[in-house]
Each structure stands twice: as C-alpha cells, then as structure tokens.
C-alpha cells in the first residue's frame, strides 16, 4: 500500500478517491503545504507517496502512468505527482519550503504544480509523463471542469492502454501477426493477477517442450515443435505487453526476458540436432554454427550501441539517410525484415521445422542470418566511418568489459601500454588478426590438435592483448568484442568437428552455450546500469584468450575421446560458475531495489 495525499479545495462527488484506492493508495487529506509535509514524513520509509489535487479530472490510466510506474524516482502530470522512497526527502523539503499566508496564493492554488517545479529544480530524475491523447488537468472553474469531463469521455483510456501495451518499434511479423491479439492475452493475464515474470517462465517452458518435441525426430514431433515454438513467441510478446499494460517493470523481469529468449532459441537448436541424429543425420556442426553466428550478431548490436549511445557530437550522413528512408512507409518494414529479427526468425524456423528437415532449417537459418549480419555490420561500419563523435570513458569501459579479456591479455596489454601506438584502427586490426591467425590455422591445418596450435593460440593472445592495450575509443573499436567472440566460438567449433568422434560437437555446443550465457549476462548487467561482472569471475573463467588456450591444450594433450570428455567437463564447470554468480547477482539486485528497467530497443 502507498500513500496518496489530497491537498487543495475538496470536490463533492469526485471519483478521485476511489480511483486512487483502485491503484493501491491509502488516501489521506492535507489542509496546507505544512500538513502535507508532515503526512509525507509520516508515511513508511519504504513506500511511495503521491500528492494529488482533489480537483483533478482525467483518465484513470493517466493517474496510473503518473503514480505507479516503478521506473522513475519521481513522476508528474498536471494535478498529480509521486515520489518513490529515494525522492521522498526532496518532496518533503519542497512541501516544507512553501510559505503560507498573504501573497502566496499563486504557490498554493495548484500546489502539485509548485511541488513539481521544485522537484524539477532538484534534479532527482523527475519524469513529466507524456500522456498523448489521455487527459489530466486541474479545472479551476465549473465551466472548465465540464469541458475537462467531456474531453475525458471522448477518449477511451482502455483502448489507449491496450494500444500502448504494444512496443512502439517492432518487426513486421510481430506487429501484424502477433500483437493484434497478444495484447488481449496480456490484458487477460493482468485481470487474473498474473505477472510478466510468470508469463516469461511459461514461454520458456513452452519452448523447452517444443525442443523436446523436435528431439523425437518424427514428423509429428516436428509439426508439434513448430506450433509450440510459435506459441512460445506469442507468450514472449505477451510478457512485455503485460509489463507495459500493468506497469510491472522490474530489473529481474528485464533480465529474465532477455536471458530466456537466448535459452529458448539455443535449446531449440539442440532439440533439432537431437531429432536429426535420431534420423541418422548429424547436424550438430550446423546447430553450433547457427548459435555462433546469432551470438556474434548480437554482440555486434550490443557493442555498437554501447559505443555510441552516449557519444557527443554524434552525427553521421549515413544515419541521416537512414532516418530519411524511415520516413518512406514501405522501406521501414523492408529494412526491419532484412535484419531477420526474432519474430521473423522464429516464424521461419517454426514453419521450416514443420514442413522440412532440421538440416534444411539450419541451412536457411545460416544463410539468412549471414546476410542479415553482413547488412547490419556493413551499415554500422559505414556509419562509424562517416560519424563525427567523441566516445566517452563509460563507452570505452563498456567495450572493454564486453571484450572479456582475461589475465593473460591483461598482462600483455599492461606490458604494451607504454610502447603501443594509438590509432583509430589499431584495436580492430589487432583483434581481427588475433581471430584470423587462429582460425586460418585450425581450419586449414591438417591436424589442428597439436602443440603447434597451442603456439598459434599464444600468438593470438599476444595480438588480443595489443588490441585492448589502449582505451577503446576509436571509430571502429566496437568491432573488438564481436571479433573476439567469433575467434573463440569458431575455434571451439572447428576443433570439435575435426576431432571427428561422437559427442565432440554436442560437448562443444554446451561449452559455447555456457560461455555465450556469460557474455549475454555481461551485456544485460551493463544495460541495467549495474556494471560488468566482477573481475574475479572474468579471471576464473579465463577470459576469451585463456579459454582458447585451455581448449587448444586439451586438444593437443588428449586423444579425441578424452578431448570430448574434457570439453563436457569444462562446459559443466563454466556453466555452474557463471549461472550461480549471475543468479546470485540478479536476485540481490532485485532485493536491493535496483532501478526498474524495460527494454524498448531493437527487436533481438
């Protein structure tokens, strides 16, 4: 229960008190600013407090947006404002400073506006809510009140609430094939008290059942898997729409939503590979290749956005052209579909699973994702080369965290820092050479499971250390993390494939999945403003170059069957390490009241 304080001239017959109680507020009345300050101070310290003018006229959803959204320390519309516990002190000070007596009527006539202006000056993160077509006002005369009530009656706030529950920017398939009905499913869930996290979990379970159906290897199983994968995606859209519909945003919810999306897709890949194996077709290399490609695509997205989202003087002719194309209706949807976002990708996978074979599913997926990766990466490289921008220290640190360099690269970087020359392209060139030298060797060498490969891995680590020896502020330095990911994941794939023994590729799939989880978790921590994983975890996992070195040593030291066992053990150890620390971190963050977040960015 939260506290709402009504302060101002009372209005007989107003439904305002009932609306506030509907929103979960305990309603109290203050006669002046001083008594309002006392009531604010008396409210329990862990509760939010709202101050509302009794003359308020507006939609219930306008009040809901202003007074219950957990993302903002303080928020306001005309006639109503709220402060969460962290902003309560500022609200109390603002109320206590308002004088009472002759000549102060302009300050107390609409007290909420005076308080809102005062909080705005305090710079505590006050959010003035954009209501769109919704109404929130404080009429001062009977005529104004009648006009306001007519304006409220002219707009169906439930229709607005349903419409705004849908993400403003999404893919074509999601926008036209899912959201027209999933929003009603979200409302159904809200009215039955279901939370977004429960719907997210249901989506995960549905996808895992779909993966199990695919693993049967039967046509009936594949058809069921396709339908269940689509239904899992419907639920995946519903959880976000439920969060927006009921304003149930949370740090934990954002993490679960993002993490489960990756878990669902990659578990489904594994299910398809198992199903194909039952039919005598080994597609584990294709499944692992699809996971590697998709993860590297995501790392490109994350790195580019982190490098540029807070850059200053951030202008680019290419970006301006992109914005211009977005103003031409049909090009928007074509450009969104080209990148094969999650809706289009899952729909394609589901349909192909039902009507073709796992091998065809992976062939089409790899080709589609490769073309999408080339399109997006080329566009971002072009934007970076034509953009005038100054990268911040925060952006450089985010890229360094995403690079996931271990102790070995850190030692090399420390030794090279005083001698290395800085340049706009030095870091990405070194990162490219680090990946390319290793990949060319393991792909084209007749027997990559040798101590020579370990030596090449050490050379790759030297180049990786040189890549991160300077702050990553160059125009293309955002390419460093995805290049490291491509080098690490593909090396594991190739060594497992060249081992040519049963179980090697599934073990490699598990290892890459564990490492990829660690990298996604790093992204979500940075996005949530909670910082990267602790250094001890990065050291314990070895960093990118350390894991490569361990895998090449195992390949050289052990026979193929032993290498498979070692990969499996390594996958289990890394998975337990990163999962336990990740779950501990996010649970503690939620318990400590980390700021609620909600991702409205690009469709993944």
Keywords:
604 residues; alpha/beta; two-stranded antiparallel ribbon; 26 helices; 69% helix; 6% strand
Written overview of the protein:
By secondary structure, this protein is of the alpha/beta class. The protein is 69% helix and 6% strand. It has 26 helices and 10 strands. It has helices spanning 16-22, 33-42, 60-68, 85-97, 105-108, 111-122, 142-154, 157-164, 172-191, 196-215, 219-246, 251-278, 284-308, 317-326, 329-338, 342-355, 358-386, 393-403, 407-417, 426-444, 451-467, 480-499, 504-527, 535-541, 543-557, 560-591, and strands spanning 2-7, 25-30, 49-52, 57-58, 74-77, 80-83, 126-128, 136-137, 312-315, 388-390. The strands form 3 sheets. It has a 6-stranded mixed beta sheet, sandwiched between helices. A two-stranded antiparallel sheet has the order 4-8. The protein has a two-stranded antiparallel ribbon with strand order 9-10. Helix 20 packs parallel to helix 22 and helix 25 runs antiparallel to helix 26 (560-591). The chain is elongated, with a radius of gyration of 28 Å.
